[in-house]
Amino acid sequence: MHSIGDAFGLALSLVLSGDRDLLQIVLLSLRVSLTATAVACLLGLPVGALVAIARFRGRSVVLIVMNALMGLPPVVVGLLVYLQLSRAGPLGFLGLLYTPTAMIVAQTLLITPIVAALSRQVLEDLHTEYAEQFRSLCLSRVQAVQALLWDGRYALLTVGLAGFGRAVAEVGAVIIVGGNIDHLTRVMTTAIALETSKGDLALALALGLILLFIALGVNAAVQSVRLTAARHAHV
């Protein structure tokens, strides 16, 4: 085991030199999380928009469930996906367990409720502002959803970035369905957990630095989107 100072030095060396194994882990992490975020947005944004503009019996129950699902325990999501994709499960014939696809499925299930709930709040506020105008234009529900999604695109981009930040930092679900297999399903969070347990602090710190940089980048992007939205609102 290296001293902390030596470990930081080796970590910086790995990052700056573009270590092959390090790069492979980072690229797989980004591929899995970006794909999961894209699918979650395709599923969650329309659901959030529909719930935002619809008024129906039991809507309050739906809102409670949507908000509750935002706090889904990752290990429970991983377990549910594992049960579906295992050989004894209904989807076991697909052979997806311990593959990046299984990890994408787990992350998608984890962040779709977050995207849906956050977008619902954003779009409901917009709908309250535009409801009278929509009625005067006799817009259908589909047209109203399209208008809200377009007008709230900057805020919704923030929602998407929040979903990505949640996905890329996930460890519990992906390690259950991915197995943390070297050169196949090892992502940044699972690699950090493994390398720390092995005492290889250099690689763990290098991955941690990259993950921290990504987190800072996501937060900077969110702030930039908010400023852009504010400027457009005053035009």
Automatic annotation (TrEMBL):
Transmembrane segments: 33-54, 61-85, 97-118, 154-181, 201-222
Keyword Transmembrane annotated: yes
ABC transmembrane type-1 domain: residues covered: 26-222
Major site of localization recorded for this protein: membrane
Keyword Transmembrane helix annotated: yes
Pfam family, one: BPD_transp_1
Membrane topology: Multi-pass membrane protein
Signal peptide: none
GO cellular component: plasma membrane
Localization, UniProt: Cell membrane
GO biological process: transmembrane transport
Keywords for the protein's UniProt record, in alphabetical order: Membrane, Transmembrane, Transmembrane helix, Transport
InterPro entries attached to this UniProt entry: ABC_perm_TupB-like (IPR049783), MetI-like (IPR000515), MetI-like_sf (IPR035906)
Record CDD domains: TM_PBP2
NCBIfam families to which the protein is assigned, alphabetical: ABC_perm1 (NF038017)
Family listed: Belongs to the binding-protein-dependent transport system permease family.
The protein's name: Tungstate transport system permease protein
Organism listed in the record: Loktanella atrilutea
